[in-house]
Design brief:
With 169 residues, the protein is α+β, with helices and mostly antiparallel strands. The strands form 4 sheets. A 6-stranded antiparallel sheet has the order 10-14-13-12-11-15, with helices on one face. Strands 1, 2, 5, 6 and 9 form a 5-stranded antiparallel sheet that branches. Strands 3-4 form a two-stranded antiparallel ribbon. It has 3 helices and 15 strands. The radius of gyration is 18 Å and the shape is globular. The N and C termini lie far apart (44 Å). It has 2 domains: 84 residues, NusG, N-terminal domain (Alpha-Beta Plaits), CATH 3.30.70; 72 residues, SH3 type barrels, CATH 2.30.30.
């Protein structure tokens, strides 16, 4: 495959071995490659204690910002399986989708991920750090929630936003 040496760096999603996201992240970062692993904090209960842990928001994925010609370097990292592809080509992820992911995680809202977007009404956030974000209104576990689709990954980012902060655009 020929690649343009002047092509800009873009974000790509990389499939990794199960439960190896943090190790792969550390290995790629050590190679001086721009890498992103969205993490969320969750409270885990054991029989004798509770503990806050950080776990990957999107299991099985790490995001890298590279020129396509550098994909072989990433594929050589232990734990990396392959790039997310369409028609045998790695699929670039727009910067705004990675930025939205970071914004959601930094917002302080409870964030979850679903594999498919359920049908619902389009809504816009009217208050807080997410003001102006648009997505779909869903109902899950009895709560009204806000969802934004990460189209290039086939995933949906779900954020619990108070219904009072949502309106029809």
């Amino acid at each position: 495959m020929k690649t343009d040496p002047s092509a800009p760096e873009q974000w790509y999603a990389v499939y990794v071995m199960p439960q190896s996201e943090k190790k792969v992240f550390d290995r790629i970062r050590a190679m001086q490659i721009d890498v992103y692993l969205p993490l969320r904090r969750s409270l885990r209960q054991w029989s004798d204690r509770k503990k806050w842990i950080e776990e990957p928001l999107i299991r099985g994925y790490v995001f890298v910002r590279i020129r396509l010609r550098d994909q072989v370097r990433v594929l050589e990292v232990p734990g990396v399986l392959q790039f997310v592809r369409f028609d045998k080509q790695p699929v670039p992820i727009p910067d705004d989708q990675i930025d939205a992911l970071r914004t959601f995680l930094d917002s302080g809202y409870e964030v979850d991920v679903a594999d498919e977007l359920l049908p619902g009404e389009e809504v816009e956030v009217t208050e807080g750090l997410l003001t102006g974000m648009r997505g779909q209104m869903l109902e899950r576990r009895g709560k009204k929630i806000f969802a934004v689709q990460l189209e290039h990954l086939g995933k949906t980012l779900i954020v619990a936003v108070p219904a009072a902060q949502l309106r029809r655009p």
